[in-house]
Input
Amino acid sequence: MAPYQILLYYLYTPLDDPAAYVGEHTVLCERLGLRGRVLVAAEGINGTVSGTVEATEEYMRAVHADERTAAVEFKIDPAEGHAFPRLAVKRREEVVALGLGRRDFSPLETTGEYLEPREWRAMIGRDDVVLLDARNDYEWALGRFEGAVLPGVENFRELPGWVERNRRRLEGKKILTYCTGGIRCEKFSGYLRREGFPDVYQLHGGIVSYGKDEATRGEKFEGKCYVFDERLAVDVNRTGGRSVVAECLHCGTRSDRYVNCAWAACNARHFCCEGCERRSRRYCGRACAEAAVVSLAADGSDGFSWGTPAQ
Ligand SMILES: [Zn+2]
Ligand SMILES: [Zn+2]
Output
């Protein structure tokens, strides 16, 4: 059995005094030696933490013993060690920000209908359905449901604008939305309903729960699921199927190897196959390769070691 666990969870629940909750929760997490990120707002809580099995089990008992958060559903992954460099428990205005401003609402008032993994699998093949990935482009680039519509957005706040521009693709369809752990869809599916789409559904517990479900075993998901911890990627589909859908930035062959651009000022994470890593010297593009040499030259070094001629 792995000695550590990674927990992922959220709950929309009214918290009267979020600042006080942050204080108490920080004490709890520090006492248990947990690391990760917990966002606390008046509307609820959204967290992902890592710790030893013993510490994470005690944490889950503590969260469930608090009547405000007794309904939290934890997704649990075994791990060999911590998945985060540090702990951050933070106060936020919203646990998930769709950037609606004055049009903002609570998913407790309006949200899409939940589909459990088995119901989801039965629905996604239908003709009258649009399968809509509610995540960012760098997430679905690593893996997604077969046949999903993939909005080219870098941030969740850009999704309402995308919906505006793509209304006609969505009208008259059953809209099925999914995200990593389910929290973004609580909001996004509610937003779609408020925008006048009557038939909106969400994958309950997101891709992570779907991958753990014993009946569906992640079927129809291709590639891997992007996660916001040091693992970056987790497996979903245990029935076979395409395990890599990501493409090398340089040559377009299938590769889900993440590398960071060798120019420190860029550092952009990108997919890069082994061959292209050698040829590109791990720069994400010509501009970065040239900029790196120029900036090193400004430091008094030109980025190459020329060797010293023998005397
Ligand atoms: Zn390549
Ligand atoms: Zn770069």
